[in-house]
Design goal:
Blueprint lengths: L7 E9 L5 E10 H5 L6 H9 L3 H6 L3 E5 L4 E10 L2 H7 L11 E5 L2 E8 L13 E9 L2 E6 L3 E3 L2 E6 L7 E12 L4 H35 L1
Parallel strand pairs: 1-7
Antiparallel strand pairs: 1-2, 2-4, 3-4, 5-6, 6-11, 7-10, 8-11, 9-10
Length: about 220
Amino acid sequence: MIFLCVGCKANYTLEIDKDGKVKESVNITENAEFFERYTNSSTGRVISFILEPYIDVLNENDYDFSNYISDENSGVSIKKNYDSIDDYVNKNIFYTQFTNKINLSKDGKKVSINFKGNFSSSGQDQSRVPVNDATITIKLPFKVIENNADSVDGQNYTWIFKNNNEEEREIKIVYDSSKITKESDSTLVFIFLGVIVGLLVIGFLVYNNMNARKKSANRI
């Protein structure tokens, strides 16, 4: 499917929960300058006009969608839930914007997801969105064994695509679905220190209060 935009920005998020269910979120946006060209229409009306030819296919594939409007970038937010990662691979329609196929393999509890492609071919392929900048983020609670993400923030693994890079890239992540990642040691240390500081403050206040009472009693 395509959207009539020029140099869109796409943020694609795949979130896997501890039960293996999957949430797919896609934000396709243009900057404010794009919408300023339509002087006689509101931003929401322009988005609705662009989205109209694709409403049927989104509904047929059980996607929820709504306008996404902000001061800097506006567009459409599209979401869908899946029962499992297998269900996602078989039923999602947005992967074709980047690749021809998602490879999913399982070895016991070890799950591997990988695919190769890029967004640059959108210039030649009319079935793809002409994307300038994009991110693909995979969020999951499981222990990750291997990945080639550009950045990792906690359990968020993100691949970044800038300026319509023509180089084909591989997205790869391998995780153990039987192991839930616990809070990092640093987080636990901060929680522990917070508890200690809190107890010290309470102790100090109680001590001062008792001291004040003793002084008051001595005066009497």
